[in-house]
Write a structure and sequence with these properties.
Elements: E1 5-9, H1 13-25, E2 28-32, H2 55-62, E3 67-70, H3 77-85, H4 94-101, H5 103-113, E4 120-124, H6 127-141, E5 145-148, E6 159-162, H7 171-181, E7 199-204, E8 210-218, E9 224-226, E10 230-235, E11 238-244, H8 251-267, E12 272-281, E13 289-296, H9 306-309, H10 314-322, E14 336-343, H11 353-360, E15 365-368, E16 378-386, H12 391-406
Parallel strand pairs: 1-2, 1-3
Antiparallel strand pairs: 4-7, 5-6, 5-7, 8-9, 8-10, 8-12, 10-11, 11-14, 12-13, 14-16, 15-16
Helix pairs in contact: 1-10, 4-5, 11-12
Binding site for ATP: 103, 148, 203-206, 211, 293-294
GO molecular function: 5-(carboxyamino)imidazole ribonucleotide synthase activity; ATP binding; metal ion binding; phosphoribosylaminoimidazole carboxylase activity
Protein name: N5-carboxyaminoimidazole ribonucleotide synthase
């Protein structure tokens, strides 16, 4: 058999983990990487260096590929549409990917679909106009409110909680508004998420009790496979843990979360893995209320547990889906699986950290991304599987292994 080619734009840990599954399935992964020593380039033979908006590099990447896909949403929309018009199988399509890349477009689409989400509005214009929009929104929906940059945000960047009206004039909220009003020259890696920001998304602050994620994969022929709904725990705007399935979640709420995910996938013709991040509001004696927070159309941090806790991992499923191959089973292989992220701590760990972590818990599945240490950087994750009633014990064990890998123990 000749190996089908999947071209992926991006050279971080997600493409690296796609490569692991591609090797097992006999798929040729070709990744456009940002640097020759990056996470994916270290394990992928066919890894040309280039930028996502470099038309020549992307065209060369897609040549002869069965599908062009992505490990991040920050793509050149015009380039993707041109490639699709030329016959390249862009999966997900530019129309679908827009909903993951542009939060205002996503909010509009969720309204059209009638799916539950926070109240929202768009604020644009000069500083006075933006502040007036936020004040008017808060007068209707209450303080605090959430400000988001429509594009470019990730891992807590581009999201700001504004607690009261006076915050609009000073501090970070005032800086954000002034930056947007003057053209949005925020610079790369700044709190606005990088790039030019010319409007702000204003959202109702939902008093959620926990955050959930509904993951599914859909093929171009319309087949869908859904994993159990998971609970995610955030730290400093970044996913730190995922518990699968979400402990104690009302079965009706789990079904509703999966229905929302399937509806988004089908209505907007999403191909590949789709992660729907949700807020859950739970009150004793009342039905759980769900609100769509954000979308991701590629393997997602909340699905890393599937590598060791499901029959088919999200990375293998994404490859199957974009090539329109039969999807694998998404059934869990144990009563529970816990994922804990390894995020760089204040001090670089010692050379013996990996060996000590392995010895501390031989059942722990350690996944490292080949990245150099940096405080606050995602460096890997640890998965542990066990019985459904043992989630807390699994969390403590996984955290202990991560503490050693971080250099904290």
């Amino acid at each position: 058999m000749s190996a089908p080619i999947v071209a992926v734009i991006g050279g971080g840990q997600l493409a690296r983990m796609m490569q692991e599954e591609a090797s097992a399935l006999g798929i040729h992964l070709r990744a456009l990487v940002e640097a020759p020593d990056g996470s994916t380039a270290l394990v992928t033979v066919d890894s040309p260096v280039g930028a996502a908006d470099d038309a020549g590099a992307v065209r060369a990447l897609a040549a002869g590929a069965g599908a062009l896909t992505f490990e991040h949403e920050h793509q050149d929309d015009a380039l993707l549409r041109a490639l699709a018009a030329e016959g390249v199988r862009v999966r997900p399509s530019p129309d679908a990917l827009l909903l993951a890349r542009d939060k205002i477009a996503m909010r509009r689409a969720m309204d059209v679909a009638g799916l539950p989400q926070p109240a929202w509005t768009e604020a644009t214009g000069d500083g006075a106009a933006i502040r007036a929009t936020v004040r008017g929104f808060a007068a209707e929906h209450g303080w605090p409110v959430i400000l988001k940059t429509p594009r470019g945000g990730y891992d807590g960047h581009g999201v700001l909680l504004v607690r009261q009206e006076s915050d609009l004039e000073a501090g970070r909220a005032g800086q954000w508004i002034d930056a947007v009003a003057t053209g949005g020259a925020t610079g790369g890696g700044g709190s606005l998420g990088g790039g030019a920001v010319t409007s702000l998304l204003v959202e109702q602050a939902i008093p959620f009790t926990r955050e959930l994620a509904a993951l599914q994969a859909r093929s171009p022929s319309g087949r869908i496979a859904s994993w159990p709904v998971v609970e995610t725990i955030q730290a400093d705007g970044m996913c730190s843990e995922a518990l699968a399935p979400a402990p104690g979640l009302d079965p009706a709420a789990a079904d509703e979360a999966m229905r929302i995910g399937r509806e988004i996938a089908e209505r907007f013709d999403v191909t590949g893995v789709l992660a729907v991040e949700l807020f859950a509001v739970e009150a004793f004696g009342e039905p759980t209320r769900l609100f769509v927070n954000e979308l991701a159309m590629r393997p997602h941090n909340s699905g890393h547990w599937t590598q060791d806790g499901a029959v088919t991992s999200q990375f293998a499923q994404h490859l199957r889906a974009v090539l329109d191959l039969p999807l694998g089973s998404a059934e869990p292989t144990a009563g529970a699986c816990v994922m804990v992220n390894l995020i760089g701590g204040r001090h670089e760990p010692g050379e013996d950290a990996l060996a000590r972590a392995m010895a501390a818990d031989p059942e722990a599945r350690i996944h490292l991304y080949g990245k150099s240490w940096r405080t606050g950087r995602k460096l890997g994750h640890v998965n542990l599987v066990g019985p459904a009633d043992g989630v807390e014990a699994l969390r403590e064990r996984a955290r202990a292994v991560v503490a050693i890998l971080r250099g904290d123990a």
